[in-house]
Design goal:
By secondary structure, the chain is an alpha/beta fold. It has a single domain, classed as Aminopeptidase (3-Layer(aba) Sandwich), CATH 3.40.630.40. 44% of the residues lie in helices and 14% in strands. The chain has nine helices and six strands. A six-stranded mixed sheet has the order 2-1-3-6-4-5, sandwiched between helices. Strand 1, helix 2 and strand 2 form a beta-alpha-beta unit. The protein is globular and about 45 Å long.
Length: 273
């Protein structure tokens, strides 16, 4: 399991040595990595992760909490996959109002040898006019807005009892995200492919305003050992969009959009065999 190293950025030589060491490690990983899409590869198992839960409500709007909407969409997505793709095993990081840690969510996916990890969330921003969907993959944030989203989703670490597993990682400290920029996932290309398909479905079939595919340092994506995406399904800070996210029909549309993207991704990957 990969771990964050806690250090103070006050010695240029130390930082340089760490960078060189990590770069060399990445070369070893890349050399041993077999790209997805080789002979006989199948997408047989997916973990669907409903963000937050239990004592962690996530963000909230005037009438709802992120954890509740995320769970409803996650369960709807899982049922749709089971119905139309019975060859795929669907696992959930949570099926009720429980509180699995970020570490446990990733560990669950890794231990079950999942082929894909999809994390469902809702967004929030101070400007109530902002709306739309975003799908994230693991990577270095390229804007303050992306960093803010990552900080908010990673902040649950501060509520967890087993915080020692994060090795001093501070979700509010930019320095803690340095290693994220140095350890790009071996599965990034496949994650980007799925993320693009999700946003395409949101825009063309669901009728949502797509804000695009983005990168940021989400711990739960960093620790998973398979292609992984984090889907922000809309803004609870936008009154109109919050109402839509609470509508069972709209939840079904969103789940259906993610399902079609998953189906297309599966077909694309398996066609390479």
């Amino acid at each position: 399991m990969r771990k964050i190293i806690s250090f103070k950025v006050n010695n240029r030589n130390v930082v340089k040595n760490i960078v060189l060491l990590l770069s060399f490690s990445l070369l070893l990983v890349a050399a041993s990595y077999s790209p997805i899409g080789l002979h006989d590869y199948r997408v047989r198992k997916v973990v669907i992760d409903a963000g937050h839960g239990g004592k962690d409500p996530g963000t909230h709007g005037k009438i709802s909490k992120e954890k509740d909407i995320a769970l409803k969409i996650a369960l709807e997505l899982g049922q749709t996959i089971k119905k139309y793709l019975p060859d795929v095993e669907v696992l959930y990081s949570r099926e009720d109002d429980s509180f699995p840690s970020l570490h446990d969510r990733a560990l669950f996916a890794n231990r079950n040898n999942a082929d894909l990890f999809i994390s469902i969330h809702c967004n929030w921003v101070a400007n109530p006019s902002v709306e739309g969907t975003e799908t994230y993959v693991m990577g270095l944030h390229k804007s303050d807005a992306n960093f803010d989203v990552a900080k908010r989703e990673n902040a649950v670490i501060l509520q967890e009892e087993n915080s020692e597993v994060y090795e001093g990682f501070d979700p509010n400290s930019p320095e803690s995200y340095i290693l994220f920029s140095l350890t790009q996932s071996a599965y990034q290309q496949n994650s980007l492919s799925l993320a693009s398909k999700i946003e395409h479905q949101f825009k063309t079939r669901v009728g949502k305003h797509s804000r695009g595919v983005k990168m940021a340092g989400f711990w739960v994506l960093w620790e998973t050992s398979m292609p992984s995406v984090l889907v922000e399904t809309g803004y609870l800070s936008n009154e109109k969009e919050e109402k839509e996210l609470n509508d069972p029909l709209q939840q079904s549309y969103i789940a259906s959009g993610i399902f079609r993207a998953f189906r297309d991704y599966k077909n694309e990957i398996e066609s390479m065999n």
